[in-house]
Amino acid sequence: MNTPPKDRYFLWQLSSEHEARIRYQEYGIENNGKPPLLFIHGYGAMIEHWDQNIPQFTDTFKVYAMDLIGFGKSQKPNVRYSLELFAAQIEAFLHLKKLDEVILVGHSMGAAGSIYYAHLKPEKVKALVLANPSGLYGDSMDGVAKVFFGLVGSPMIGEVLFTAFANPVGVSQSLLPTYYNQSRVDMKLINQFTRPLQDKGAIWSYLSPSRRPQDFTLDHLVRPCRYKGTAFLVWGAEDTALPPHKIIPEFQQLLPQAGAFIIPKASHCIHHDVPQAFNERLESILDSIL
């Protein structure tokens, strides 16, 4: 984005004991007769991870994006992080902006949270556009990865690993495998992902998926889920963590109506890895449903 949009915040009372200051941004045109787009980032990311995508749609749509609780510039309280919590945040945001219907564009963990929300509130979702969603894994996670997540889930070891990785070098090592076009992992991106790791409470949100992985899966949802509306899966062909040939069939059990598109020469962070191809696919999807 050439001119950085204004950061906005709202105070979310997520329980009787906890509240959190949530960052969001809004762009585009009002009252154009189309449902707005709401972009939901993935694990460790933030609004800026969409900076190659959102500007392409602000001339024709009202567009919103927000930092999930525990990430970006949103507050990071010591609460139980989960897909359910992220779905509750989406609901709070729609209530704040008085939105009756929205198109959710989610990446990875943000896509999983979007599915969870659509399952709970199907009447509020016009369409789901899911970029390399997490939440269903089949047998894609190898033994080494399972051992690693087990270690990270151990409180003392997890804190040591968090400290070791919460710096530009560690962030770079974490980001590179999620990109096919690794030149995209530049210092601007690395710094964007590093800064929130220094915030108070970051260790609680960042370690939650490894400490309580069951809170970040969609395995317990009925198949098919309650959302019967329009849905699309957009996947990077070179995603080695969540390979499309293994994972897309899992998601199509949950969302049998979902169309699937595989984009070549792209990995897990597809929207930022190949932004032009992703934007063209998203534009085509939006044209087909509106």
Automatic annotation (TrEMBL):
It comes from the Bacteria. One of its GO terms (molecular function) is hydrolase activity. Residues 35-273 form the AB hydrolase-1 domain. The keyword Transferase does not apply. InterPro entries: AB_hydrolase_1, AB_hydrolase_fold. Keywords: Hydrolase. PANTHER family: ALPHA/BETA-HYDROLASES SUPERFAMILY PROTEIN, ALPHA_BETA-HYDROLASES SUPERFAMILY PROTEIN. This is Alpha/beta hydrolase fold.
